[in-house]
User: What shape does this take?
Amino acid sequence: MDMSVLIALPVIIPLIFGALSLVVLNNHGAQRLLGMLGTTAVLAAAILLLWQTQIHGIKVLEVGSWPAPFGIVLVSDLLGAIMVLLAAITGFATAIYSLKTVRKRFERFGYYPLLHLLLAGVNGAFLTGDIFNLYVWFEVLLVASFALLIQGGERAQMEGAIKYVTLNLLSSAIFLTAIGLLYGMVGSLNMADIAVRLTAVEDPKMVTLVAMLFLIAFSIKAAAFPLFFWLPASYHTPQVAVSAIFAGLLTKVGVYALYRVFSLMFTGEVEFTHQILLWMAVFTMLTGVLGAASQYEVRRILSFHIVSQIGYMMLALALFTPLALIGGVFYIMHHIIVKANLFFVAGMMYRLGGSFELKELGGLYKKHPGLAVLFLIPAFSLAGVPPLSGFFAKFILIKAGVEAGAWWAVAVALFVGLFTLFSMIKIWNEAFWKKAPEPAIEIPAPVRNKALYWTTGILASMTIAIGLFAQPIYVLAEMAANQLLNPQLYIEAVLGGGQP
Amino acid sequence: MTTLMAILIGCLYAASIYMMLRRSMVKLLIGLILLSNAANLLIFTVAGLERGVPPLIAQGAETITGPTADPLAQALILTAIVIAFGVLAFAVVLLHRAYEVIKTDDMNEMKGTD
Amino acid sequence: MSRQFNMRSLILSTGTTIILPLLLLFSLFLLLRGHDEPGGGFIGGLVAAAAIALKLFADDYPSAKSLLRVHPLQIVGVGLAIAALSSLPSLFVGDNFFTAQWWSLDIPIFGTLKLSTPLFFDIGVFLGVIGTVLTAIFTLVEVEH
Assistant: This one.
């Protein structure tokens, strides 16, 4: 047994724990225990995987000993391993947070199994080296997210879920179409093999056409302009723990897929494809932040900010310079933690203040100063205030934009940063600073809950740590970006017989 | 034959998009079903429409003789069908429950979260 | 309620008592036949789920549910666990993850029994399909009630 099995662990562990917690469906205690054990195990496996990948370079596992490019391979390059670690952190935090917030009713309808399944799907998507397998993992995580989204069955959830399901199924069908056309062109499904064979395709226009289909499919999943509206229509409807893991992870799987295919496979007509990406990034940033400005419900503001942040990540891919990709990877690392944390904090604001509506909230600073600090850290980080993680992420990205001469995009990115700060201050003023309004209904005495404070506290300290120790994170991002810019490394690792 | 299939697939895509743009939830569902069928037929067609034999090497022979069908495309379609089956089963349950909660089939009435 | 299953037919009900065990047996046959001939866990699972759905139509929801004894999602869990665990034995003999392992057991009188990890994977798929299909059907019936 060698270390390559490590690549399979982040996928197989949640599957096994998900299956076990389905078996003990009626035993809530066992489900929670399995939830904690499973996410802890995934976290441990993810840390090991990233460590090993950083030392030994890209690792490849030929599943079932079927040699590439014929069998399915799992590949762990640095981007994939970093994403898996972030998913594991988010999953772990969600599991702790769920202990106290998820109602028994939802546990009986399979909350924990779905959580495990979601993690398996996300990790599978990050690690697979096969384009059709990527589709399968996308569907796994989608089905799990569908079911999590409608738990509770309220009207708003149903309406949100119909939009979410329709747009995501449309995107999956486009993805499948693109895979079909690609297979017709090159006759392979292994991404490294496709990358090699695409260089020999006679008609580069056809390749670009398929690339555009992939772009449409993944940008729907990433909630990029113009087809992003399913996200703010649905993300605020489920329970907070679900919103948080969705906000942290799901759109980023779409972003990851964009990074993967547009750095590995479709690099033939960069001027054309990445120009489109640039415009999409600019509009995604703008529409997201302007949408947030008009909202007065905490979770909806945060949802619109997911859209605007996706724009930054796409901007990095669009610029496609070494510095920009470093910024992009850094941005993803910063964003997943901050975004999930903000939703967790929103959930605590609801528990302590009784509402998600800014108009009905108030006086939280006076009553719960600890919560106020926990809100300020991720909120300022999101807006890009130094020395928090978001500052460095934005700084690298904007520097890359200036170097690439994309002045328009830089101007928009700065403007959006300012507006993000405006949104965060809006929440701060309304929910924390202003006097508490006369409650229309008596709020039940809030229970201080240590587990929730721990969850958000850990994530907030990670945000600070990324800011304070930006140098090692930068080096890691630089190595990941280096692998993205040299797809030859990936191709050699996969097709060179792997590391059996 | 391939031209004919291409036209058929194009019609299926067009019909599915048309159905998805209608206001009724049931038509939306029909649109989704047609869409997955169109994608599957597309894979089937691009893999080559030849009258081939199963890709099995006969006993005693070293290589396959004659044209063979591409098994991988068929495996893809089979997987995609199974996935579409699961997802659409979920969509049926979702739409039914949504109908029970919202009490309408009209998508224009579902503006609560916009 | 007027929309309940009140279309009970004596013929269907009596027929089901005979057909149901046959269908379940047939589903097992399909499962094992899938080893190297057309068949397999997925199609076997569909047949078994159809058999239980037939019970639902012939009799009523409670009797179909009691036939299963457990929640269909628990069956999915068992199936998924078997399928996922079938990937692990390869690790103990030093092969790559998920490599198929074959064993043959000599049982007196009956002859040789061939076991393999793909068989266990298929059994997992079989249970998973039964559970998934029945969850969908039961959910629809519950909405109806």
